[in-house]
């Protein structure tokens, strides 16, 4: 939308990093202990990591610092906080966007004690909107284990469409598992499919 007045620009700027329940902010040092703890929890690691293994805390902390630098034009990372309490509830990242494709991959991690409270749904919605409206992306993709119905339902509810299955693409527990690819497109999103 083209702005006609300065207050329209300020209204947009004032809410681009906020949803109904969450707000995005830069990573702060005090976030790292929770993020490291959540990332290292094997029960949740199996849903978001290639291999479940113990990792040194400082290595995981550095990983989040790297994801949160937001220095390259095609990558951003934010800490996710509850809008009211300011309590850290997770972390989100868009990565891999390049010209001319303008396509990125979305990754979201909500802390185990904050799951099923609407934070993930709101965080995905806000980051998708940010990717299309602020980064100029055309496509955002999410990959999720086929058995993770909770996550798939969140993505579909927000406006992502299941495109296909990467058969036997993830190895855990002695066998291969399918991964579902979902995507959102700027034209559909900005037309009102899933905007916050």
Provide a short characterization of the protein structure.
α2 packs across α4. The protein has a single domain, classed as Aminopeptidase, CATH 3.40.630.
Could you describe the 3D structure shown?
- The chain has 196 residues and is of the alpha+beta class.
- The longest helix is centred in the middle third of the chain and has 15 residues, at 119-133.
- The protein has a 7-stranded mixed sheet, with helices on both faces.
- Helix content is 34%, strand content 29%.
- It is built from 7 helices and 7 strands; from the N terminus they run αβαααβββαβαββα.
- The protein has a single domain (6-190), classed as Aminopeptidase (3-Layer(aba) Sandwich).
- The protein is globular and about 60 Å long.
Order of helices and strands: HEHHHEEEHEHEEH
What is the rounded Rg?
17 Å
Reported for the largest beta sheet, the result is: 7 strands, mixed
Distance separating the two termini: 15 Å
Strand content: 25-35%
Please state how the strands of the largest beta sheet are arranged side by side.
1-2-3-4-5-7-6
- How many helical stretches? 7
CATH architecture: 3-Layer(aba) Sandwich
Under CATH, the topology can be stated as: Aminopeptidase
- How many individual β-strands? 7
Write the layout of secondary structure elements.
Elements: H1 6-15, E1 22-25, H2 32-40, H3 42-48, H4 57-67, E2 76-82, E3 88-95, E4 103-110, H5 119-133, E5 139-145, H6 149-158, E6 161-172, E7 175-185, H7 186-190
Parallel strand pairs: 4-5
Antiparallel strand pairs: 1-2, 2-3, 3-4, 5-7, 6-7
Helix pairs in contact: 2-4, 5-6
